[in-house]
Amino acid sequence: MAREPLSFHTVLGTSTATTITLLDKDLARDLMGNFSLSELAYWMVTEQQPTRGQGRLVDACLLALADHGFTPTALATRLTYLSAPDSIQGALAAGLLGGGSRFLGVTEDCGRFLADAIEGLERVPEDDPGWDEVALGLVRATRAAGAFVPGLGHHVHKDGDPRTPRIFAIAQEEGVGGNALALFAAIGRTHEQVLGKKLPLNGAGVVGAALVDLGIPVDLLRGFALLARSAGLLGQLAEERRRPMAMETFLHIDQNAIPTRPNGEGHVRD
């Protein structure tokens, strides 16, 4: 008996000799020129065509995370390109691999923190005072556990991250904000009562909240952060080609390295 050929069902890209189909749409006729890359990413992940407001908020979130200057991810990309200029993909990958708990990972950490808290609620608040009560309890419990509230604080924007109010404003303008943004805003209003100091709600955190409200699975939040940073790292590579700084960075560190004895017993040349 002849075996039936294997088949694999997908809503993503498939091709024939003359067409490419993606999300049940003709790629060339229906999608190209009509949707942005950020809208397409949202659509592929959620299998829901974004509304104008959802698309605008997703795009704002990606822009917020695209590039922050000479961060470790950018330096990794530039230095890898210095070492292997024949490997653009290696330089980009080096920067993306540096997206972790300190850089880019806050988006995932904050989104998961908020989503877990909301899932554990017996009743979802209907107003700001209700959310403030939830936020106070959450911050108190987090502090008692010896943990940090993700999304609070920034090493540069100590008096307020300029991205945060913009994300809140776009979500409100488009009517696409939800429980995660409401809880995050309440944390911003109440945390000082518990921590004894005022910290800014950072951009990576508010992006995590916004993406949760947009229906992005928490396990994929860091993927959106990496999608955003890919554009930034491409810009870093382009600038490295125009105005190199990686060689000077390497030489500065290398030429100022001080030989030191093992086990902290002092310098070789005292």
Task: Identify the CATH architecture of one domain.
Answer: Orthogonal Bundle
Rounded radius of gyration (Å)? 23 Å
What is the strand tally? 3
Beta-strand portion reads under 5%
CATH topology of one domain, by name, is: Cytochrome p450-Terp, domain 2
Helix content: 55-70%
Q: Give average pLDDT, whole number.
A: 91
Class inferred from helices and paired strands: mainly alpha
Distance between the termini: 83 Å
CATH class category of one domain: Mainly Alpha
Strand order of the largest sheet: 1-2-3
Shape: globular
CATH homologous superfamily (4th level) name of one domain = Cytochrome P450-Terp, domain 2
Main pleated-sheet profile = 3 strands, antiparallel
The DSSP helix count reads: 12
What's the SSE pattern?
Answer: EEEHHHHHHHHHHHH
Reconstruct the topology from this structure.
Blueprint: E1 14-15, E2 20-22, E3 25-26, H1 27-31, H2 37-46, H3 52-65, H4 72-83, H5 88-97, H6 105-119, H7 128-144, H8 163-174, H9 179-195, H10 203-213, H11 221-242, H12 246-255
Antiparallel strand pairs: 1-2, 2-3
Helix pairs in contact: 3-8, 3-10, 3-11, 4-5, 4-11, 5-11, 6-9, 6-10, 7-9, 8-10, 9-10
Short overview:
The chain has helices at about 25-30, 35-45, 50-65, 70-85, 90-95, 105-120, 130-145, 165-175, 180-195, 205-215, 220-240, 245-255; strands at about 15, 20, 25. The protein is an all-alpha fold and about 270 residues long. It has a domain at about 105-220: Cytochrome p450-Terp, domain 2.
Characterize the structure shown.
This protein has 270 residues and is mainly alpha-helical. It is 57% helix and 3% strand. It has helices at 27-31, 37-46, 52-65, 72-83, 88-97, 105-119, 128-144, 163-174, 179-195, 203-213, 221-242, 246-255; strands at residues 14-15, 20-22, 25-26. The protein has a 3-stranded antiparallel beta sheet. Helix 3 runs antiparallel to helix 10 and helix 3 packs across helix 11 (221-242).
